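User: I'm designing a mutation panel for Carboxymethylenebutenolidase homolog and want to avoid disrupting the core. Could you give me a predicted structure to guide residue selection? Please restate the sequence first so the numbering is unambiguous.

Assistant: Good idea. Sequence first, for numbering, then the predicted structure tokens:
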Amino acid sequence: LANESRPCPCDIGDRFDYGGRGQEVQVEHIKAYVCKPPASTDKAVIVIHDIFGWQLPNTRCMADMLATNGYIAICPDFFAGRKAWKPSDDWSKFNDGLRTRDAGKINKEADTVLKYLKEQCGAKKLGVVGFCWGGIAVRHLMMTYPKLKTGVSLYGLRKDSDDITNLLNPMFFIFAEKDDFILLHQVTLLEQKLKKNCKVDFEVKTYPGKTHGFVHGRREDINPQDKPYIEEGKKDMINWLNKYI
């Protein structure tokens, strides 16, 4: 996350007025939003929220979209009860708050969710997608859990791009060309590292003219010029998941 004065950009987008099609459940020590497709399936996708938490309507809309495409979609509270960020919060304290929400320290929650998907949902083929903070979390999980057959990271990149070449399974990275918080040279460096060292399939795609959060944070009726790219991002995400799950 590159901008020092605004350490996280997820408040750029507009919040959907959206109630969701799924339901909230208690999964051991955390809560989660779950949406299932009409037909029975053993395919599931974990949806990892941004800093605004698991109840953000925009993220639940993405989970519902995955369900309409045939996946059990679960968006757990990876903050495990800790308060989600609000746009009105004091941004000068953001980095302190982020230290208690480390995207690389979510294994307990991931274990809980994977157990639930297996035992309660009958899921056998698993993937993961995440947005911003969640996109960084996806990268961590894809280097940790071989049972996750693929991952999609949407605008998730640390300022000092850490080594992610030890991916266990294929991964798709979505970025925005006009992202003031993830700069193009960082994306280029990431792709260079992957090309040099990564041993699994990957793709890095930058969408022209778009800004951070465009896939799940913008409303087409307010920003009609975004609509084709929003739809393209969703289609690309689904196509990648379909390819590997």
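For picking mutation sites, this is relevant: Residues 1-14 have pLDDT under 50 and may be disordered. The two ends are 30 Å apart (CA to CA).
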